[in-house]
Fold each of these.
Amino acid sequence: MTVMTYREAMREAIREAMLADTRVFLMGEDVGHYGGSYAVSKGLLEEFGPGRVRDTPLSESAFTGIGIGAAMGGMRPIVELMTCNFSLLALDQIMNNAATIRHMSGGQFNVPVVIRMATGGGRQLAAQHSHSLEGWFAHIPGLRVLTPATVEDARWMLKPALDDPDPVLIFENALLYNDSADIAGEPTCDIDRAVVRREGGDVSLITYGGSLGKVLAAAEQLAAVSISAEVIDLRVLRPLDEAAILTSVAKTRRAVIVDEGWRSGSISAEIMARIVEGGFWTLDAPLARVCSAEVPIPYAAHLEAAALPSVERIVSAARAVLGR
Amino acid sequence: MPSLGAGMEAGTLVEWLRKPGDAIAHGDIIAVVETEKGAIEVEVFETGILEKLLVEPGSKVPVGTPLASIRAEGEAAVVTPVVAVDAGPVAVEAPPLTVEAPPVAAPEHVPPPPSAVPLASPAARKLAQERGIDLSALTGTGAGGAIVVSDVEGHADVQGPTDVEGQAAKPAASAAADLGPMRRAIAAAMARSKREIPHYYLSHSMDMSAATAWLNAYNAQRLPEQRLLMGALQLKAVALALLDYGEFNGFYEDGKFQPSSSIHTGLAISIRGGGLAAPAIHDVDKLPLARLMTQMRELVGRVRNGRFHSSEISDPTVTVSNLGDRGVEALLPVIYPPQVAIIGFGAALPRPWAVGDALAVRPIVQVSLAGDHRANDGHRGALLLLRIDKLMQEPGVL
């Protein structure tokens, strides 16, 4: 039995990768001496030295570009962007280079880079540090977008991500870093499929990342009023595991999507569209979703709580879909 | 696709009995359609050439869909293809151009199909379609009152055995009554009746001695196939009585009563295997008893084989239900909307009856009336029953 936190699981995954493959190195702001903004890489500098755990200037575009170039040159870089809010500074590198070079070079170059970043709100860090932009990145062909929601996924998703010959983005919801769980010795996950976190028959609650805990809590409350909710953890936002979504909705005939992103043009909108395209005749109620309020995420604790998806909102959305 | 009864939304064209190029005349039967009430023969009200068939056999089309185009005598052939426009619920049964006995109670009296499609989920719609269940017969329990899968499943559970029975009762020629839909049609019409119509009930005991004696004398001189049944006398008596009590003959629609100038008496006919229909015999007040009897026999035969004419099913102005041959003494019938009255006859049973100061045993029939209190009142209803009684005492005038 090995109990560890989400933070430790991620660190363990990086360590394991660096031990297994000398081409793997970690690069980002404060990943070395400071041990990472969220303390994920604490101790790695001491263990692997400054050549493989590299502190960078505050220049996301530059060091992301270096990571892409290193990947093209045969390395297996792990680039840490402090939060997804700052990933926008590296968006040109991610979208115009990482995601396109395989295609534009006719397959001569591929970009096996892994870019990790923290995401999500709920920590009173206000409008510039609380974004959930994973849905945006899921729009881009050429990328794989992972959202580990459990300690186990944090522990095991990195290796297949590094093995992927194309760029993989990992979004770590910052509220999850202190979660802890017992991690089994054997790797138990892939980076292709969604999983059913709770079986149910009345409504599918479809979510990912930082909202999974709220959704599981909501499912528990719904069970108390005899509503059997099935909880789908998408795990991978691109490519979406459409089969898992449609299979669950075909069973429950109802779905509520829970997404910490803003509603307009969101991944939740894409999921709803896929359900309507592929599962229209299985539906027994209009689809519903719980997203963040369409405002810059507020600083004030009560306003921030009101802006983000909550257990109460998930419960009431599910009940409304069922008409009870 | 004519509207052939309250709540009918669509019908399936079963077969064309005439082909393009055929000369057709007013009253011809040109097609058979399958509705919830069974197979119904579609009559035409035009004379001319059947120019083009617009609907393939087997197709289910909404009420109001043109089934065919007819070129009237002298009219130039249509060169451009006929566009299927929404002609309302009277597409085929357009007002007759010929002058003979206008069917006043043509389908414009039939309530239009509900304009609003019932709120139903895609999954419920799919299941209902697979099982041939009419969504308008269901009550939704989903969010916002929508019909959901469980509502369709619940309905199917109730309907299951009836459907099986209906299948068994089907003659080999598939154009026959399917009792699943018929049961639902009855359910819809009767539920609407009891929901909307404030019924009142009257009943009256009639001495049938005079009518029985007259009938026996009449039948004694005739071959069995020419003999009359008491039901024909009663039907005629009702029609004649209604001549002076117009508020019982017509339709209550759109918040007002519309009397009918013709008396088309619906005859409640039970169908083997379950269900019933109440198609009309037209202008009963004008029919001599012998012809009325012939028409009754013919109609009962056809209905029990599941075939009615479109005009019969759609336009009764009043209904008569006779349960006398089942031996019950009296019945309290339910009005078939949008009609405003239904008259019931029980069995003629020997009963003690005061004749002058003495008692006699006489055949007594209970005649009952269910009236729509929005259109008529008990006082006049009582007079109507007494008039029927009076007519039954003078069978020679019938």
Amino acid sequence: MTRDHLRILLPIFSLGLLLAGVFYLQPRAMSYFGLNLLFNLAVPVALATIAQMMILMVNDIDLSIGTFVSFCACVTATFVQSDPVVGYAMLLGAIAVYAAMGAIIHARGLPAIVVTLGMSFFWSGMAILILPSPGGSAPAWLHAMMKAKPPFVPVAIIAPVVIGLIMHYFVKRSSLGVLLRGVGGNSQAIDRSGWSVLGLKATAYGIAGLFGVLSGMALVGLTTSADANIALRYTLLSIAGVILGGGEFTGGRVSPIGAVIGAMTLTLAASFLSFLHLSSDWQIGAQGAILILVLAVRLVFTRREALA
Amino acid sequence: MVVNRKEIGTREVPIISLAGIGVSFGPVRALSDVALNIMPGECVGVVGHNGAGKSTLVNVINGRLSPTTGEARYDGAESKADFRNGQRARQAGIRSVFQELSLCPNLTVLENMRIPYRNMPWRNWRGNAASAVRVSLDAVFPGNGIDPYRVVGDLSIAERQMVEIAIAFSRRDIDARLVILDEPTSSLDGSIADQLLAYIKKFCAAGGAVIFISHMLGEIFDVATRMVVMKDGRIIANDAAHTFTRDSLVDAMGHVVADGADSGDGRKQRELGDEVLRMANGLTARKGEIVGLAGLAGHGQAEALAQCYLERSSDWRANRAPAVVFVAGDRARDGVMPLWSILRNLSLQTLVEFSRSFLVDRKAEKKLVADWHRKIKIKTDDVESSILSLSGGNQQKVLFSRALASSAPIVVMDDPMRGVDVGTKKEVYRMVRDEAEKGRTFLWYSTETDEILECDRVFVFRDSEIAAELTGDDITEENMLRASF
């Protein structure tokens, strides 16, 4: 239990530290409007991180999530807006492709890293076909939802909390979640008990696809237009988010709440660096440094735990 | 919760009936012409040396393997040998505990209970699973104190094995009627193993059946009502347990085992050299000495070994003259490279030692492997095939060769004989003794008394500390037990 607690405490602590830093540098951020501005871009990142988490949970890795989210954003900004039936059918089809990809990876014993890398070019090409130049527009309801101003707590806070709690309930508490994590922990044991690992992997990938779609839609809701390269950075951000949130690359050890917090931490790190007036040339490097720092701290703790 | 609950004790129909079963993997015949009936209330002991086909037999019974020929009947029902046998086996209440642990280390104990329980009621399943595991753990291993909410990865290997056994005996919608235990006591110490044996007797008395596979003949004789002896994929003896004696059983298995007087001799004549190892906890070893680490499982022996090994091997660059080599007990975790061939697995330790240049000397590597293949009789025709094509005992032989091939003066062994058959054990004992005579020092942690009796000096561990140091004629089972408790 203690190890699990530690796993979740560290991301919370690092998010808190960064938030304190931001508030210290820019006290005006400590408001409804300020928080919304700080975190609203965290919503699509959090959704993409959850998608990545579903894949990491079954011991695979998804290098196509960034281009997939871009593709979904392009579909949302064009077809969903102009021709909803075709648009939603395309998004559903994309989820089905994701599930099929999981099934094929398992059935043929292919390395996920290669298949998803290949698929990333596919999604990227599709996105450019749909939207050769930046443009499109968000469906009105989506825009309204993302820009809504509920009393007291901004959407940018409510959405991650809701996503984190729902996924926590699904992954950590439900039977299906247990089986999916079991695939990551010891797929042979799952197979021996008569479950279809193929089906479970397809399910995990399908859910990842669903969250990729949601991420693309949320992104369009915020930016109101799309671009074929809009979410390329999400691939690495999502992996970093899962790891930052206490997940591991193998062994089915993931934490949905941690992943959401990890995504928020990464988004906040960018803002924090801007408030420091750091030149944007250095920002990505500095973001990487923050990531390494947090992971190093985690390593120190888990090592100590293992020795104790 | 009670769905499809069958009455235990349908005396007339066998739970499983195999006739003329044959299984081939390509050109390899793993089983041929196997016939076996298991009635309710029986405890069938299955013995045979490594690679005799025991695990394959288990997989046919629990339906995971479709036999190439012959037929399997569950509860007397006609059934073709097809892919649905797994489901039929589950319906018949057949459950298995496998040789290598098959729990998910990232899940809690109760979540692991969920995995084999296919049709678990959805409402409040966590609470139900927790209480079911708790009840079963208490029934099989009274006083174990394992919390169902703990993550399996945090449990000791003995506790994991207890959890796995308890899950196999737990109550579900279809009650357990035949439980297959493959080397269930390999990581358990004596008193816990006795609890299990007592529970098996109770379970069989109530009409359940058990297939008990073990290399520990004492346990089999204690618990089995019928013996099945396997050799080279065939059942060569199948009779009531009381018709066998220890010797006749070993004879039937086809191994000539040296008599008991043999163990521990060769201990006295040897001249021991200078002290080569001294650790903070008082553990010492001299050149050419076989030092045993005894005591109940999980009392700090493995940690002491790891510390000894890491202190001497944590170097930034590979060394042409390593100070110490390690033989792993937990093969899957720290021994075998599952994707590599037997050859690569065997030569791993000595790659740097034996190559003269930057590149691997493939010729020397091949020669080394051919030597050891012959010397330790690894059961394969082709050392280029995958390591996983070998049975557990033969994999362990490869790991032994890997370490012994090195020139390191100290060999650290972490209970390496887990699940290895009697014949192989004797061969390895002899090799260890020979190597010791040449001046090598062995640090040997073992949960088996026979192995500790092979040692020149024994440190008995209790609560991570050395409770006693025994030498010469003081090394007896009695003294060890006294120091352990």
